[in-house]
Amino acid sequence: MTRVGRRKTPVAAVTLLFLGLSLAACVPGGGGGGDGGGGEGDGGSAFPEDDIEIIVPFAAGGPTDTVTRMIADPMSESLGVQIVVQNIEGAGGTVAAGQAATAAPDGYTVLMHHIGMSTAPTLYPDLPYDPLADFQTVGLVTEVPMTIIARKDFEPTTVDELIAYVQENQDTVTLAHAGVGSASNLCGLLLQDAMGVKVQEVPYDGTGPAMADLVGGQVDFMCDQTTNTTGQISAGEVKAYAVTTPERVESLPDLPTTAEEGLPDLEVTVWHGLYVPTGTPDDVVATLTEALQAALQDEGVIDQMADLGTAPVETDRATPEEHTSLLEEQIGAWEEVITASQGG
Ligand code: ASP
Q1: CA dist., res. 39 & res. 35, Å (int)
Q2: Are residues 226 and 108 in the same domain?
Q3: What is the CATH number of the domain that holds 207?
């Protein structure tokens, strides 16, 4: 677990933690579970009074982690409390989402998740949570292009060569991803469909560790977000073939799009959003949404995202309404695509 935001001295931290816990135990909507309407305005204290934890469902150092840490500092500034980023890895992000779904609905446990929130219901028939029923959306954060990359000494250098090579060597070629349900898994699935192959997949706890192995030459290729690949592509640490958006990205202007390279159907953008468990009081969700919107307008965040090929969503999309409507639409859309891909 890594702490970001304002630092407390150990003594102050312990005192504040103790105070926070005591208050949480007697304040409606705080710490001990929400009632859907507690918090400021009904005699309780103003939220937040204690550290807020944002759960990242993948390993540290990957794209979801990177985006979360970008917004954690400015959110911490707005909220006046420390934000603690906790990585809970496993099963393509579903372990973390399962834990977040059953956390106290008090705003102190927030989940950052991406497009995987909409693909998991199709990919996991026994998913222990319902993305729509068990969570309240806080707002969208960003939409990130993906890139098709390989270890730098991988033989093919263009998409055409990649397709030919993988078709010929599908028994030995390896594809890295962050587990079933991850964005890299989804993109890898679509890429294999487009190439008409089924290669050996190597799942990791996140594309942070997967990237380390790709750079080290232990796996052959991967699909991953520009927030994790821009630096490695620019430094020549990996080979890049294409970006999965209709337009090229400014941070990688020489990289062609999948459509330019003859794969127009391979279009994926990885949207991210923040969630709290259902039952979280409305005013608490509103406070988190406001802090998210402020973070997305922070010049530092805008610059960091631009350097990595993405941008914050517009403020009017960083809302529960827009986020829920996208989630609903995406669950249906990906169910169709994944079912078709699995031959259903
Ligand atoms: N975003 C990555 C994926 O879903 C995982 C990660 O953030 O490490 O493939």
Answers
A1: 9
A2: no
A3: 3.40.190.10
Pairing of strands 109-114, 52-56: parallel
Distance from the CA of 136 to the center of ligand 1, in angstroms?
22
Ligand 1 within 6 A of CB of 99: no
**Residues 101, 27: one domain?**
yes
Which amino acid makes up residue 120? A
Q: Please name the residue that has the structure tokens 């402020």.
A: 294
The boundaries of the domain holding residue 181 are 145-269
Ligand 1 neighbour 182 (Cβ under 6 A): yes
Q: Which residue has the tokens 């890895």?
A: 89
Domain boundary among 218, 246, 269: 269
Separation of 15 CA from ligand 1 center, angstroms?
A: 36
Q: Output the tens digit of pLDDT for each of the chain's 344 residues.
A: 333 332 222 223 322 232 233 323 333 333 333 333 334 444 456 999 999 999 999 999 999 999 999 999 999 999 999 999 999 999 999 999 999 999 999 999 999 999 999 999 999 999 999 999 999 999 999 999 999 999 999 999 999 999 999 999 999 999 999 999 999 999 999 999 999 999 999 999 999 999 999 999 999 999 999 999 999 999 999 999 999 999 999 999 999 999 999 999 899 999 999 999 999 999 999 999 999 999 999 999 999 999 999 999 999 999 999 999 999 999 999 999 888 887 76
Taking the centre of ligand 1 as the mean of its atom positions, its distance from the CA of residue 42, in whole angstroms, is: 40
Same domain? 8 vs 136: yes
How many folded domains does the chain comprise?
2
User: Ligand 1 in contact with 118 (CB < 6 A)?
Assistant: no
Cβ atoms within 10 Å of 336's Cβ, excluding its own: 11
Residue pair 223/244 in contact (Cβ under 8 Å)? The answer is: yes
**122 and 204 together in one domain:** no
Question: 119: Cβ below 6 Å to ligand 1?
Answer: no
Q: Is 226 in the pocket of ligand 1 (CB under 6 A)?
A: no
Q: Which tokens in the block code for residue 138? A: 């806080």
Residue whose CA lies nearest to ligand 1 atom number 8: 206
Same domain assignment for residues 233 and 85:
no
The residue out of 236, 269, 302 marking a domain boundary is: 269
**Is the domain of 138 the same as that of 277?**
yes
CA dihedral angle for residue 136, residue 310, residue 266, residue 119, rounded to 10 degrees: -20
